[in-house]
Amino acid sequence: MSLVSIIFPMFFTVTDKMYKFYGGLEVRTLYLAKLLGEDGHEVNVLAPRGSYLSYKNVKVLTGNYRPWDGKTLHPIDLEKDLVESNLEVLSESDVVLEDNHFHHYHYLKSKDPENFPHLVMSWDHHPDNISSLPNFPCHVIAVSKWVMSALREKFKNLGHYFYWAYSGLVLENYPEADIHDKQENLYIFLARFSMVKSPHVIIELAKEFPDDEFVLMGDTLFTQEGGYARLILEESDELDNVKILFNATWDEKIKYLKRASGLLHPGFWNGPLEWDILEGLLYGGKVLCYDRGAVREIYRSGKHGYIVPFASTEEENIENYKRAFRNFRNLKVDREECRNRVLEHFDFKKNSYPVYKKVLFDNRKLNKPNR
Is the pTM higher than 0.90? Predict the structure, then answer.
């Protein structure tokens, strides 16, 4: 068996129960560490101070800092400290997985490739804000086909090996439910209160559709999001059909996923693979989302919900979303089909873990780029 080291981002503490508080990509990698340990591999998880795990064969290593607080050191400096505090352990590893944002370990390996172990990178965002990568081939697992295609196009001359594996759900975390027992006029939002996730669009829906109920669940991550969240809270106070659950508990989230007729995802940004959409579908909910990012890989417009055309201005987009919602309210979907969409394609253990194992352990000796 192998020694695997996984470098987490410096935005969250890593714990056994973090899936109850964070969405998506970090939870995916935490589950990956758990599965690797259960398969007999020794796993080091490099994470911020305050992290702890009790998984079989998994050990937490930290640097000198707790998660980024938005005020002191830049996250890239926190990542450098985490990596450089554990260079000896990393050098002893059979394989290193970078699941962070700034790829400092990749940079170090590019300077001395013969003395560093096999390196794999998880890539969870569109590369439009990355100008370059170290000019040394690396194995890159993208979170969706859409992200993989963007990476291949941008870095096609660097010799990287590209793959995709959906950041699917950890199904064991989700309790069973009667997916047909729905409140037909109840719709939920499940994401950060930030401009990129755009819950203000749902406030506009609530004003125009007073007979429908809207529950918004989320929190903030970055310091600049607090002011935006306060505006959402203030506007919701004037609306009887809007309920805000700031920092909703896991049990509250599951309760509303079970009850809601549909999930609203009005985010303006190019999402790499949005977990809230998967969670809504898992509980038989229809979905309303802009035509952004990897959304067309997740569900089919007209079958599992609607995909809304994305326009060039915010005003047009809000009008498009409201117009689509009028039809969405009356859309009848096969709730079993919605659930099966996730069970068949977005079960991390069944669909994605085999890809990670192949890239981590079987592809170390590849000498031709996977084009």
Answer: yes
